[in-house]
Amino acid sequence: MSSFIVRPSNTDKDPFRVKLTAVSMLSLKLKSGDTCELQSIDFEEHDQKKKKNKKKLAIAWEASGAGMKDTIVQTSKLLQEVYGFKLGDKILVSRSTHAVQDSAVISIEHLGTPSLSEEDKHFWEKYARLSIPGVDECLVETQRLRFRTGIQVTEFVVRDIGDSESLIGRVTKDTRFRIRAPNEDGSEVVETVKQVEFQPVSLGGVHDAIRQVQDIIGRICRPVVKRHFRLYRPVQGVLLYGSKGTGKTAFISALGQAGWTAVTEWKPGTQLKGTNGSEPQLVVVPTRYLSRKDSNGGSSSSVVVGELDKLFEQVRDFPVLVVGEVRHPNDVEQALRSEGKFAAEIELPIPSAQQRKEILLALRGGDSVPDDALVQEMADRTHGYVGADLYALVRRTLEIASDRSESVPSVPNNIRSLGGENQKQINGIEDMASLTLNENEDTANASSTQTEDVQLALRPTSTDLDEALRQIRPSALQEIFLETPNVHWTDIGGNHEIKRQLRNAVERPLKFSSRMAKLGLQPKKGVLLYGPPGCSKTLLVRALATEAGLNFLAVKGAELISMYVGESERATREVFRKARAASPSIIFFDEIDAIASRGRSGSDLNVLTTLLNEMDGFEELKNVLVVAATNKPMNIDPALMRPGRFDNVVYIGPPDLEARKEIFQKRLQRIGDGYRPEISLDEDTDEFARAAAGFSGAEVVAICQTAGEFAFDDDRDVIVAEDIRRAIESTPKSITADMLFEFESWNSARMR
């Protein structure tokens, strides 16, 4: 018995002949036409079980021609398929005393549906008897037969050749064929497969992905599927994809603990050992081998694709799952995303509020900190946060709570006996105090009591969460034009109707989605604010994002313009991609006329087209509100004004009398004793508001600033009414009657 390397035969004629050199034939004491036995080295034990200890026989034949090495055995593609050999495998070849027998009866099974009638069975049995002898010298169990009648092809598989010792039998003119049912007694014994239980409790918010992977594992470990591995190939490659921090690595780590016989981290050149039909294995392909680009910026496909092809070919017919992770499927070479390779692509999406709660509960585990109320608040306030962000947020919240607790002194036990008001004060301190454990406790009871005190002391609050949220931002919004607004509706004077419209555009889809669906209402996609400069357009949008608790992306139109070809379009797409990932969110385009003006050409037109496609293209803009502001609405391309893009067009004009009075009151109340009323604050601000008719909101704020400078110049620490009057007289108006008329004319033309 000697080992040989499997190589392809130069002809498919006589497929069960294996060709060896003259030297090899001599060493094995074989001559052409003798029967030889083949055995796989890597999977010998499994092969013997799988084939009921039947021998894999072939006809030895001396190879013609020169140049063939003595370590090579040439085999046909059919022989490789039915015996489970692969090119490059090492197999054992030995002389066999068991000759290939003439088969008296060969049992075949019909592949496909519907099942054959008795009449059809008789037809195909006779057809096989007449057509196969003289065409196929031998047949092997599991070999597929294709019979063509006209344009129709009917397929069968050989189930039994009538020899209890070998898998191969010779077909003669006396051989009869019998078609049997798939579940007929005497059919192939299917060995059971060790079951893999993938039911992770440490993963939250990914139920859909878990279910999909469970289904895939179930199929490759299911005996009825395994019985037809050669005919039906289940999915054996899973590609997990999703944004940074969505839990891909944690998912694969949990998958690796599901009870596989072996878990292998793959690299080029890896050869799996011990693979067999009853022991499921997991193969993890690192991201660096899946990326289209290698570390030097070049393509790694030429190095990796061929190796991964070999991997999938090696695991074929065995219960092996191959899994990898990437940010996006397009990062993977297209050749690896085909059937037979990474055929299943499963997304781990940005979690919803309910999924965030599940993740937080999974992070908390069996602890009671943070409590359920704070967990719910975290879930509600963390739009766009992924698993990694939530972990960082919980950690930072607990750190802040711990630091706060440490800053409060512990309460000595001997003071606990005090009563009355002192006891109330002590109780208040204890609620926040972090009691230090004594490392040298004398008794276990003392240790237990102090441990409970520490747990009670570490109570993170909403205030701690507020501070943590300011420090931990969603991964999806990193490295982008991000602002965290801290403006509220109460900071803006007047504009009550406009505030209501903006609130409705944001709050209705989030709070009343089911009610809107019943009425057939679609959420607003865009709001365009236009009007003279300084009239609180930007301030209104900041307040909207703050009050609604949404992620806020602020972009000036001019920032998207680049001299490099295609860069402006890429930047625009990136803004929308980040907003989708962090939804619900608001994109605010200030000075949108810089990128969306009518009559543009070249690269400017491409930016406008990109903007239109992102707002109303094939990919739905869900839970993302686009708000834009401009001082020149007449320059904006009309294509942006139709429904489905900027649904609401809102005019933000100069503040009216009430709004100007509110602005004066808010500014003067903010400085407190820094303003000395002449009559009363209410009457003074009423006078100032009337005198400031025609000024914008920004100019009213500037008037208050100028009044403070007048007081400073006069060496006073308080502002008086005369300072305000002087400031009003010295401040020029930027809003003209012609400007207001132009806005009114544009709006009238738009409404026609």
Automatic annotation (TrEMBL):
Keywords linked to the UniProt accession: ATP-binding, Nucleotide-binding
Domain AAA+ ATPase stretches: 234-389, 523-656
Coiled coil regions, renumbered to chain: none
GO molecular function terms listed in the Swiss-Prot or TrEMBL record: ATP binding; ATP hydrolysis activity
Gene Ontology CC: cytoplasm
Native organism: Exophiala dermatitidis (Black yeast-like fungus)
Xref: PROSITE patterns: AAA (PS00674)
Gene3D superfamilies, A to Z: 1.10.8.60, P-loop containing nucleotide triphosphate hydrolases
Keyword ATP-binding among UniProt keywords: yes
PANTHER family found in the cross-reference section: AAA-FAMILY ATPASE, ATPASE FAMILY GENE 2 PROTEIN HOMOLOG A
Protein name: AAA+-type ATPase
